[in-house]
Specification:
Helix content is 9%, strand content 55%. The mean pLDDT is 83. Strands 1, 2, 3, 4, 5, 6, 7, 8, 9, 10, 11, 12 and 13 form a 13-stranded antiparallel β-sheet that branches. By secondary structure, it is mainly beta. The chain contains 2 helices and 13 strands.
Length: 207
């Protein structure tokens, strides 16, 4: 409970199996989550910082020294987030049945993430039919992102928006495409190359 806002749940079930291979399962009214493999919850933040330092080092002060071994898969589905989000982040709305899954391997510098959601609302900005597919190799982080529509209130709307590209050592290249209400009359696509500087500035070149 937070002020006059109350979160209620009919069931929350947590199951944990320990050993060489760990298995964590959370089943609740709000979210289902499973994490399986060799991992340590306390090291997850360092693991995230490690991957950021590999592909966009300007965004972190840490070097890319490999952290302790983290080898696991994860999969989750958001079932009913409105009550929780209304307390902590009321400006964000996530559609029920949104799902995510992926794999983390610090030994092989492997990170993959797949996200599907019917709708995400952040303030007045709405993203419809979200699809994000991303993965890494030894040098780069690749991503493919699609939205059926991005709108800002009733003033701006873009249809069939795509953002595809990769990041590599403080550089990034994107192919951006979108269309207007009539895709035959108004559509555009362009390349955007960016450089992330340690000074905090970003250089952008549009082709």
């Amino acid at each position: 409970k937070e002020g006059d806002k109350l979160v209620t749940a009919d069931s929350i079930f947590i199951e944990t199996m320990l050993g060489e291979r760990r298995d964590f399962k959370l089943t609740s009214d709000f979210i289902d989550l499973r994490i399986a493999g060799d991992y340590n919850f306390s090291a997850l933040n360092k693991t995230l910082q490690h991957f950021i330092s590999l592909y966009i080092p300007a965004l972190t002060t840490l070097n890319n020294k490999r952290p302790e071994s983290q080898e696991f898969n994860f999969k989750g589905q958001i079932k009913k987030s409105s009550e929780i989000m209304d307390i902590f982040y009321p400006e964000i709305v996530i559609a029920d049945s949104s799902s995510f899954e992926g794999k983390v391997s610090t030994d092989n510098n492997e990170l993959s993430i797949l996200v599907n959601s019917k709708k995400l609302l952040i303030g007045e900005v709405a993203f419809d039919d979200i699809y994000i597919d991303s993965h890494s190799d030894a040098m780069s982080f690749f991503f493919r992102t699609n939205f059926s529509r991005i709108s800002v209130g009733d003033s701006v709307a873009l249809n069939q928006v795509s953002l595809n590209g990769f990041t590599n050592k403080d550089t990034a290249s994107f192919l951006i495409g979108f269309s207007g209400e009539d895709s035959l009359l108004s559509h555009a696509s362009f390349y955007l190359n960016a450089g992330f500087l340690t000074t905090g500035y970003t250089t952008i070149k549009i082709v």
